[in-house]
Amino acid sequence: MVLHRQVSEVLGVNTPTDNKVSQNNLASHVNNQCLLLIFSTGLVFMEDHSVLAFRATAGVGVSAYERYVATGSNDDSPLARSDLPCGCLTVNGSLPCDRHYRSRILDDWPSSSIDTVRLTLYENGVQQRFVEFDGSGSNFLNWFTQARVVNSDWTDISNETANFFSIAGVNFPDVPAVRRFYINRSFGQNCDDQGWLLVAEADDVCDYVPPPPYPVIIYSGATTSTGVGMIT
Q1: Is the per-residue pLDDT at 123 higher than 60?
Q2: ω before 173 within 30° of 0 (cis)?
Q3: For residue 37, what pLDDT band results from cuts at 50, 70 and 90?
Q4: CB 94: neighbour CB atoms within 10 A?
Q5: What share of the chain is helix, strand, coil (3-state, %, to 5)?
Q6: Which of 15-19, 66-70, 194-198 has the lowest mean pLDDT?
Q7: 152 near 160, Cβ under 8 Å?
Q8: Which domain of life is it from (predicted)?
Q9: CA–CA separation, 149 vs 143, rounded Å?
Q10: What is the mean pLDDT of the chain?
């Protein structure tokens, strides 16, 4: 995740080119991408009123979720910044980043000052999809709910029933299925699932999750939820 400088925090993810999947308007973007979480704040951290909070980098072999919830471990101290690749602080896919970037702002989430949280998907530095959430009275875990959605270019995400809308998502190693930042509408036979977004962090029972390196980000490339399953 990346907290980025545009009136909000950013969650970003980059992925390798050999891990790309596309099915029925579903895009699995592993090619110089970023999934961005952005929040607007009344505090002035930068001249554009924003803070880079988290950037998740696809394909680095480390759980984006575990890094996100790793309280007390941050990358914005002078010592941590000394060996931080410059690409980890931007959505520019041409710059290298070999890790997930986590800001201390997640540990000190200023609930009373956050107006909106923005989750954005980028590919090659270009925004693909976004969801904005009401951040008032939230913490760094509970902002990610359907009830808090205020705007998105997925036109149905606030009014269609979702069976999962969770940062923790599902973690069933025996199935297997480890899906984080999971926004799913329904499950179908033979993995004919319908949804908006998931971050796959391990081998999965469903073929629509590609092989490692993980994590891999899969999202609907349509303006609505999309069938993500491959019927076998």
Answers
A1: yes
A2: no
A3: low
A4: 9
A5: 10, 30, 55
A6: 15-19
A7: no
A8: Eukaryota
A9: 9
A10: 78
